[in-house]
Structure formats: C-alpha cells, structure tokens
Design a protein that fits this description.
By secondary structure, the chain is of the alpha+beta class. The protein is about 40% helix and about 20% strand. The chain has one domain.
Length: about 110
C-alpha cells in the first residue's frame, strides 16, 4: 500500500533529520557536554526543531536498525510509528508498513 503524499513528505522529513543527526554523531567529540549530545527530533512535523539530549552510544544503538528513529515524546505518528522504547527525554519509534520498508531502503548506513 502506497503512502499518501502527506505521509510521504513527513517520512522524507524524518530521513532528512536522520541525516543531520548522522553528521552530529560523526563530530560528537567536538560537541559533547557531560557525555550528552543534542540530536534533532526525527519526527515528520515540518515545524519541529526540538532537540533531544542523548549519549552517542544511545544514538548509535537506535541507528543499528534502519527503521528506527528518535522523537520527542508526543511527536510520534500512530499511523506509521510504533513506540519501541520510552525514555524521559525521547522515544525510539519503529516505522511500520511501507514507511518502515522505505526507511530501511533510505538508511544512510545501509
């Protein structure tokens, strides 16, 4: 089943923020404060510019799966996200259905 244009645009935004977070992770030694980095929320909301304090190792663990994203609590989209981890400052969501398949295909680490 194909994604609606709005959902497709949302998923593409998530991929873009994931790419930005990949760069943050790469340069992490320069920006760590007390072991934490500020990653961007990888939700699909165009207006969202929230940051999520995470350790680099937490982010790397999430990124081990191409269909996983980090979002601020409340920013998950039940139509395409299933929450797989809950933390005080962020959630880990897994994309489901077509969104999950496409996210894995567009994973910069694959």
């Amino acid at each position: 089943m194909a994604l609606s244009q709005q959902k497709e645009r949302s998923v593409r935004n998530e991929w873009l923020f994931r790419e930005v977070n990949e760069r943050i992770s790469e340069v992490s030694p320069d920006f760590e404060v007390r072991g934490l980095l500020e990653f961007l929320c990888e939700c699909g909301q165009e207006e969202c510019l929230e940051t999520l304090p995470m350790t680099r190792s937490d982010y790397e663990r999430v990124r081990a799966e191409g269909d996983r994203f980090v979002v601020k609590p409340g920013h998950q989209d039940p139509a395409v996200d299933r929450v797989v981890e809950e933390h005080p400052d962020f959630l880990v969501v897994m994309k489901v259905g077509q969104a999950g398949q496409e996210s894995e295909e567009h994973d910069p680490r694959s």
